[in-house]
Amino acid sequence: MADDNSTMLEKAVQILVPQPCFDKYFVDLNFFDGACAKVVISKCLGFGIILGSILVKLPQILKIVKAKSGQGISLSSIMFELIAISANYSYGFQKSFPFSAYGEGLFLAIQTGLIAALVIFYGGNLIGSIGFTLVYTLIMAYLMSPLVPMNILSLFQSVNIFILCLSKLLQVVANYRNGSTGQLSAITVFLLFSGAITRIFTSIQETGDNLVIMTYVMSTLFNGLITAQVIYYWNTVFAVQLIERFDVRPVLVVGVLFQFLGCFMSSFVSSYPLLFFSMAVVLGIGSALSYVTFIVAVDKYFDKKKSIAMPLATSGASLSGTIFAPICQRLLEHYGFHGAMLIYSAIFLNCLVCAALVFPLESKESQRKVSEDNSMGMSFSRKPSFILYMLTNLLYIIANFIPNGLLPETALSKGVTQNDISLTFSVNGITQVIGRLMFGFLSHRLPHHIKYLWIIYLFGFGLSLLIVPLSTTLVHFFVYNLINGIFNGGANMGYNLTLRNIVEPKHYGRAISIALVMQGLGALVGNPFAAFLKDVSGSGDIPYYFGCFIFILSGLVLLPISNINQSKSPEIEITVSEKGVYSHKVIDTNFYAVRERDYELFNGPII
């Protein structure tokens, strides 16, 4: 009996730990095998997704039932999504993939079908709801049977990528037209987004099927778009709302403390989950708070020549890559990872001094009034010019980090040493500073053509990537980093200064935070997709051609709004108080500057 229990337990463990890895872990006691670690992590994530998928759309179902309405939910989107889920599930079943690689499709199909039936039912069509359920059940029974040829399912899976993108795009359009996300559940949206990201890894590990992998890459991208919509239609631009409520300095201090805490915790952790929490969550929150607050602070503290102030203020981002790369290497060599993180946490504490020096400019009463004025919502996000601007932010960041991620490996494959290629990155950091300052100077001299300047820099960044496939020596890589650094610095400066010509100054804080959200989504997808292209094509040059295409496309997307003439007469507002003080507020509707000053007009009473 004991042997039977032992055998059952062993079989249960082998669901997550396949036989070869089971022997290494529990027979040879080798717990540090990298290949087995990937397999076990993939299995755990896969079954975790399946377990989560049982309830992932339950919040959406409950929300529809509670509201007795499907308002805000695109039925066309739901139908296309159901087709995509069904194709993916039936393809995985017929290909005999591990259940952990596709099993969530069964539960997602049931819940998505139920949502579609509820939307039809609450739309006043009971017969249609019942008929839809019966037809869908019969179709799925056929797809799961041996009657379906495998080549048909493969074709279905190929078309599935387009269907999936279309389903998500329909929901994006519906949200935009409604100006809200309606009965769309934020919990469901976030779970689908995180699940799609995880599935990229598990699909690579467990199936190796390019069709399946590409499906989840596109699912991540479009679920990310819907997630971004939920964020700004709900007015949950967290960092900016904190700034509007508490002002710049407190938020900056809290952000720095989070960064310190993330590094400090990382210096003591000994497991990956804890390291993920300390680095990705705690340090990530601190970085988001600090960076957004820093950008808003520069905009707020400078009335004139902001196009010069911003490049000067952000040039430290480029210099840090030059300075801290060798410092980090030396710290790791002498003190190890934990010691290096402890030293970095001490460095972050020094930033508290800088944050404390960001003194408030206005009284509390004035801050409260500004906060009330800024709470008028997100109406600017529906302007076509802003939508095109957001799309440009998403696209160019997808390709922005390809050189950082792939260039060292490319250089090594062509005979350039690791130390030499690190030196070229230092050159890139220096020229990025020059590129930022050049962009700021040109923007100041040509304030009506900032978007054109950004397009030129985007094109330049993209075209510079074409140098890499032609590079064979260290000199070539030096030339690339020299040219790329200039365009890189300007391209990463342009998104900030261009925004001033698209939205009103009072909306700048929220607009820039949404832009950074879109950039985060692009960064999340960019390098994994570039690596996927490299593996599929078998060529290390393909990611650079892809990056060039994306940069050119991002510039072309921005082109239709580049010649919009926003020039209007300035608005002048004069208020006279009983104490003989008047406030003179000039708003330049080209949005290059906002100036507020108080002047004492009379020492005596007003006549």
Automatic annotation (TrEMBL):
Record GO biological process: oligosaccharide biosynthetic process
Alphabetical list of Pfam families matching this protein: MFS_1, PQ-loop
GO cellular component: membrane
Primary location group: membrane
Domain Major facilitator superfamily (MFS) profile, first and last residues per copy: 385-607
GO terms for MF: transmembrane transporter activity
Subcellular compartments: Membrane
Positions of transmembrane segments: 39-58, 70-89, 101-121, 150-170, 182-201, 213-234, 246-268, 274-296, 308-327, 339-359, 386-403, 423-442, 454-472, 478-499, 511-530, 542-561
Membrane topology value: Multi-pass membrane protein
Keywords: Membrane, Repeat, Transmembrane, Transmembrane helix, Transport
PROSITE patterns cross-referenced by the UniProt entry: MFS
Similarity comment: family membership: Belongs to the MPDU1 (TC 2.A.43.3) family.
Protein name as annotated: Mannose-P-dolichol utilization defect 1
